[in-house]
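Quick one:
INPUT:
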């Protein structure tokens, strides 16, 4: 029999929808939230959107003690959250980050991809920046780990009774508390403490982009913010060097490819697909702007904007931490993420 949710489950759904609708905190189907009792945890299902928390059935209920025991025992099952579903609910899968929520003692956990948090979490000098910005908070930071049980164990290792803020390297932010209003206030306070201004960028050369893409599968990006990614050689070098956080890899591929000097769009596409990669969903055109594949889905478009919002808040000369080839490839071949992608297909 499925247990009844806590009395304040509605407040958690409202909290989830509130932050889920704000792309500065959540993009697309990213992020998740949960509420727990001694015996069970209600958590956002994989591939669903927090913005739908008050209008859709997006939460599943899991066996919290069993999940925690599996984590402590180092079992492979801890990376298979569907094994901990309690009967009687919907048929969706629990988030791959179910184990991450389980390691917190606090009743309510909110995991976001805060733009300001990511803009810090990708930098090589992240720890020093966070120490200055988060003075007065009970916080910790963990290096990047693949989402799932490995990340949950890394977070568990730094948690103390008082820690209620965790910055995830190359990933995002977690806040935790025992009441929805407490979590709302904490998320807002941390996000504001990490706030960074957006750097101005030169306008794109739309005429040149239209000429370049005529007769191709690409078109100039209609979101003006994306063009900042091609603004200057330093910024171009940052975004083409590698991938910076998981959701970008999952929905947009590794890094952001760019046209070489004098290269046609068809040539760039052929060069990239010759490596076994799919056609790129977007291409940077140095000093001119960004072109996007006409068939790019909504999930990819949202993640393109996420990267632009992050990068305009990072100095163009900042040293960044990139995901390794191994980390990129394990994300692209991860069954849980393939499932999430299928739910967010166009």
């Amino acid at each position: 029999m499925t247990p009844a949710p806590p009395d304040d489950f509605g407040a958690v759904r409202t909290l989830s929808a509130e932050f889920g609708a704000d792309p500065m905190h959540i993009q697309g189907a990213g992020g998740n939230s949960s509420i727990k009792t001694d015996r069970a945890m209600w958590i956002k299902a994989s591939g669903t959107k927090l913005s739908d928390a008050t209008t859709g059935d997006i939460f599943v209920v899991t066996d919290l003690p069993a999940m925690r025991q599996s984590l402590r025992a180092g079992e492979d099952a801890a990376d298979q959250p569907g094994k901990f579903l309690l009967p009687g609910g919907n048929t969706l899968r629990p988030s791959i980050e179910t184990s991450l929520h389980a390691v917190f003692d606090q009743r309510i956990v909110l995991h976001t991809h805060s733009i300001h948090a990511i803009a810090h979490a990708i930098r090589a000098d992240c720890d020093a920046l966070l120490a200055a910005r988060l003075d007065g908070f009970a916080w910790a930071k963990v290096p990047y780990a693949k989402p799932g049980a490995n990340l949950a164990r890394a977070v568990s290792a730094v948690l103390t009774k008082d820690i209620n803020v965790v910055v995830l390297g190359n990933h995002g932010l977690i806040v935790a508390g025992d009441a929805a209003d407490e979590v709302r206030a904490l998320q807002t306070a941390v996000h504001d403490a990490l706030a960074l201004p957006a750097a101005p960028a030169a306008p794109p050369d739309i005429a040149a982009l239209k000429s370049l893409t005529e007769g191709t599968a690409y078109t100039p990006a209609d979101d003006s913010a994306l063009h900042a990614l091609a603004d200057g050689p330093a910024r171009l070098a940052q975004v083409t060097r590698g991938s910076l956080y998981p959701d970008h890899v999952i929905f947009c591929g590794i890094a952001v490819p760019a046209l070489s000097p004098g290269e046609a769009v068809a040539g760039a596409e052929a060069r990239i697909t010759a490596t076994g990669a799919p056609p790129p969903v977007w291409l940077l055109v140095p000093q001119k702007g960004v072109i996007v594949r006409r068939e790019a889905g909504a999930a990819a478009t949202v993640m393109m904007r996420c990267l632009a919002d992050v990068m305009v808040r990072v100095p163009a000369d900042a040293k960044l931490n990139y995901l390794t080839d191994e980390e990129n490839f394990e994300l692209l071949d991860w069954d849980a993420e393939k499932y999430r992608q299928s739910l967010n297909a166009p």
